[in-house]
Amino acid sequence: MDTREKDIEKLKDYKYGFTTDIENIKAPKGLNEDVIKFISNIKKEPQWMLDFRLKAFKRLKLLKEPNWQKPKYPKIDYQDLYYYSAPKSMKDKPKSLDELDPKLLETYKKLGIPLQEQARLNGIAVDAVFDSVSVATTFKGELTKHGIIFCSMSEAIQKHPDLVKKYLGTVIPVTDHFFATLNSAVFTDGSFVYIPEGVKCPMELSTYFRINASETGQFERTLIIADRGSYVSYLEGCTAPMRDENQLHAANVELIALDDAEIKYSTVQNWYPGDENGKGGIYNFVTKRGLCKGKNSKISWTQVETGSAITWKYPSCILKGDNSIGEFYSIAITNNHQKADTGTKMIHLGKNTKSKIISKGISAGFSDMTYRGLVDINSKAKNSSNYTQCDSLLMGNKCGAHTVPYIKNKNFDSNIAHEATTSKISEEQLHYCQQRGLNPEEAVGLIVNGFCKEVLQQLPMEFAVEAQKLVGISLEGSVG
Amino acid sequence: MLKINNLNANIENKSILNGFSLDINPGEIHAIMGPNGSGKSTLSNILSGKKGYEVSGEILFENKNLFDLETEERAHKGIFLAFQYPLEIPGVNTNIFLKTSLNAIRKARGEKELDAIEFLKLVKQKAKELKFDEEKLKRQLNVGFSGGEKKKNEILQMSMLAPKLSILDETDSGLDIDALKIVADGVNTLRNKNNSFLIITHYQRLLDYIKPDFVHVLMNGKIIRSGGPELAIELEKKGYESFN
Fold first, then answer.
1. Pairing of strands A204-210, A281-292
2. Which residues of B106-135 are buried (b: 16+ CB within 10 A; e: fewer)?
3. CA dihedral (B28, B34, B39, B42) positive or negative
4. B112: DSSP letter
5. Distance between CA A224 and CA A256 in Å, rounded?
6. Alpha-carbon radius of gyration of chain B
7. Sequence-distant (≥ 6) Cβ neighbours of residue B239 within 8 angstroms
8. CB A437 to CB B90 under 8 A?
9. CATH, residue B22
């Protein structure tokens, strides 16, 4: 094996695939009222929170798992999963990072997420969620000065019940759909953000999700509220160990922007994708929805989806406030046997609302990619507009790319534009780049990054560099 | 510099090159002329490392077996091919492509990579020399370029990378007289006692501006006659048939 082949071998390995040997407290296996009460109890939740969960569970029993998506998967036995798993050392909550289990700190260090005070030179406040619980939130002092609340969902339920009660479930109601409702019943932790009126959050807020325990579903819940005239940029990153089994990740994310507020939400999703033959990997079935509640508000989703065995999600915007703006920028990459069915929904309710969708799908190997998007302009949403650009790039001839746009326009003053292209990286393009001194991986990286440029530009600087590398690594081994 | 001994090449069981031999010394310019289907493009493809051919025989570049080197390694060692049909790469800015290419080659040679400022200075100077519209450097590589612009872009890349052996595969076809002169200027500027050129063409026209040391006539996969510049003129007068 020459050095280049060795390098490729090294990169092919999913770098985050290690497990941490840590003692866990788990809820008994299975999904029932007792397990839900166990979760609520261990988190010392107030009665209203338990009621919320039980209401969702009652509804869940009436709902059927949806089956209209393109990627099919074997039946999930919901009674054979753990719904709560937490590192034992978190039971008596550590007061500071010094009291954290050193093994946890080590795990995050390996992942490149610095939790220690002295390591936070990059100026990003981080909330780290390990299996079911938030283990650490950094930069709290600095944020408190501005009146910003950035903490775990569990802590928010205890300390800011009024805000949680007022907003939780207002964008994704407990009656929504199977996976969202499942999340409402059993969610364990996640991040909570509140930006007060007129405050521009001075730093990037970030949550880092890590699945560690086996046979465990991860159900986080994130709630972000941007009060009038405020601004926040929020990032999430995700990784998981390599396991033969498929693990379910069904998160709910709710965003609420009041008058003149703006939320920018970026995701770099790198859950374990399964091995080359499609064994193992995460089922990433996530519900993300933003409500532009106030006038002139704006919500912008940016996602870089490279991991997971199956990615099935549609980060959406409900443009309720007049003049509000919704944006969706997406790069989705599938390689080997990965599958994705992803896109967005833009629901225009207010007048003069605008939305923009830029989607870049890249499929390689035996993978299959579907862009599915809905643009719905309501009869009262006068003078609204949408622009959609949907590009697919194929590598090799065993993968698939599909584009399924749904467009509904219920008034005559609005306009919708949809553009779509499908292209392929050709042998000739690769040969051309190689003739100019680039090795095949560098060539693919260059071509693919060029293809994704418009979306990468939307990411905050620190993440853009990482995402650019990730795009290259995800496609390693996909060139002949 | 380049030694080709008894090269045979087949594609899908069809023989394209058949006992092809050629020696190029440092500083020499060789022109290969031949009718359609004589094997000209196959020759440039094989030299550049394009896959899909069954080959036998020997090609040595600076005494190294070319078949042991990957396409990009050949580029690192100083082989450059100006493509007959330069490729379009959407989304990739021409400047970024040029910089990535130049730095990949510099890195492989153990030279310091150029930073953005050094690179821009160099590319601006080269673009000016070749009368290449600087605005085009900001556009996606070859996307929306005219045929002539694409060919000029190849010559710009050649002059940026300063290769030891440049192969021009029908660079002159489809060029107007002004563009033809620019291509010739690019070659003549780079021409010195160390750099060699292999110019593949249908017509004698380009050779009015680039004086070759040797002209070879390629037919049915092998060189059937070699001579000086006068051979090109004879060929232009009599046509390929008279040589057969």
1. unpaired
2. beeeeeeebeeeebeebbeebbeebebeee
3. positive
4. P
5. 6
6. 18
7. none
8. no
9. 3.40.50.300
Domain ranges of chain A: 15-474
Q: Three-class SS of residue A23?
A: coil
Note the pLDDT tens digit of each residue in A162-207: 999 999 999 999 999 999 999 999 998 888 999 999 999 988 888 8
Nearest to B75 among A437, A440, A453 (CB): A437
Task: Name the interface residues of A facing B (CB cutoff 8 Å).
Answer: 423, 426-429, 431-440, 442, 446-447, 449-453
Sign, Cα dihedral of B108, B111, B112, B117: negative
**Burial state string for A318-344 with b = 16 or more CB within 10 A and e = fewer than 16:** bbbbbbbbbbbbbbbbbbbbbbbbbbb
Q: Which residue has the tokens 């160390």?
A: B194
Helices and strands, number each (H, E), in chain B: 7, 12
Only one residue has tokens 């479930």, namely: A169
Contact B91 A433 (CB under 8 A): no
What are the pLDDT digits (tens) for A107-126?
656 555 555 443 444 445 66
Pair of tokens at residue A427: 């042998």
ipTM for the predicted complex? 0.96
Range of the domain at B75: 2-243
Using DSSP's 3-state secondary structure scheme, residue A384 falls into coil
Number of structural domains (chain B) is: 1
In A88-218, the DSSP E strands lie at 124-130, 133-137, 149-152, 191-195, 204-210
pTM: 0.82
- Confirm if A393 and A361 have CB atoms less than 8 A apart: yes
pLDDT tens digits, B211-222: 999 999 999 999
